[in-house]
Amino acid sequence: MTNRQICVIDDNFTKMSNVSLPPECLLKPMNFPHKVLMGPGPSNCPPRVLGASALPMLGPLHPEFTMIMDEVKAGIKYIFQTNNEWTVCVSGSGLAAMETACLNLLEPCDTALVGINGFWGERFADMVHRQGIDVKTIHRPTGEVFTLEEIEEALKKHKPTLLFLTHGESSGSTLQPLEGVGTLCHKYNCLLLVDSVAACGGVPMFMDKWEIDCLYIGAQKVLSAPPGASPISFSKRAKEKVKKRVSPIRSFNFDMNHLANYWACDGDVRRYHHTGPISCIYGIREGLAVLAEQGLEESWKKHKHCAELLYEGLEKIGLELLVKDKSIRNPCVTAVKVPDGVDWKAVIVYARKTYRVEIGAGLGALAGKVWRIGLMGYNCTPDNVRLVLRALEESLRMTRTAKL
Ligand SMILES: Cc1ncc(COP(=O)(O)O)c(C=O)c1O
Hints:
Blueprint: E1 5-9, E2 16-20, E3 36-38, H1 47-53, H2 63-80, E4 86-91, H3 94-105, E5 111-116, H4 119-130, E6 134-139, H5 148-158, E7 162-166, E8 168-169, E9 174-175, H6 181-187, E10 191-195, E11 214-216, E12 229-234, H7 236-243, H8 256-262, H9 278-294, H10 296-317, E13 333-337, H11 344-355, E14 357-361, E15 370-374, H12 382-403
Parallel strand pairs: 3-14, 5-6, 5-7, 7-10, 10-11
Antiparallel strand pairs: 1-2, 4-12, 8-9, 11-12, 13-15, 14-15
Helix pairs in contact: 1-9, 2-9, 10-12, 11-12
Bound molecules: pyridoxal-5'-phosphate.
Pyridoxal-5'-phosphate (PLP) binds next to helix 3.
InterPro entries: Aminotrans_V_dom, Aminotrans_V_PyrdxlP_BS, PyrdxlP-dep_Trfase, PyrdxlP-dep_Trfase_major, PyrdxlP-dep_Trfase_small, SP_NH2Trfase/AEP_transaminase
EC number: 2.6.1.44
GO cellular component, one term: peroxisome
């Protein structure tokens, strides 16, 4: 608020009041740059998704809107490959879905086992710790994944009630193999929670077949929709765990009992819980429709193909990928090592200014050590691979020259 004050006379001209001037920045048109977002998210939204997000408002319980919610629910079940009743969107970004899983599935008598091989495991462990809940961790360096043997050993040792794994660890660009993990967890009476924010839709995911108990994603990655509503699904086992809690869920906003009712998952009449991000739900509906029309298998193939083009191109430029083992690379996000003596920030700035291409910086322990290139949903095309390679190659050449 500006300090300049003016005197105005109220409607009845009876007394004077002090009102500050409107901020000058809001009296000018918004300065909006167009960019090709080739970082780890958000992705650009296709015009169809943007068009849907700009549709007029409906009420959160209007039948036309609840029908759209039902379509979103069907779309989530498709991309997760699940028949879970408790399948909804949480209002908020991917982090809100992570918090929903934490708050509903854990209570003070529980122990969570968290797989940390990058930034997102750390984040979840922090979240659990803040709830005063016992957290045990297993570690792999960022850029590596956990084996079934390591997981089993930790399950035996810590006897957790929940195991958290990141499917697509976007800080290290790995793809955690999930087959067999759910069965293993259930053998030890433990639930499996998976973060697939930076992978699902672009790589195979079989929530039911892989016995995953809770799975969540964000809207702004492979779905290429605006952030603000995040899909999440709970298995029968996970739902039972929530229903049998001895302590109340420490959040009204993220209480799955309320959300399941609002998303018509409990067979009861829908009741108002909160006003959801209506425009984001329109957007996510269209993002899911794009994926449904394309077909999941085609989407998985497209992501794999474009990622391979990217790996080939990066090697030609002489750049090294963080993840050596091809079988555990996440095609949606690729971490590229910053060569010695290169100013990583100058490269990002050059690509942004010259090509309007946004290349992601490293996150957490890898800040300044890697760049991260995203190929997700609408942005995952061979043309974009060529564009980002050209931008990167020229940025490297020009920023090196500028330093000499
Ligand atoms: C693996 C992973 N989990 C969780 C998140 C958090 O999602 P959001 O930024 O939408 O809150 C991200 C974001 O990049 C992510 O990559």
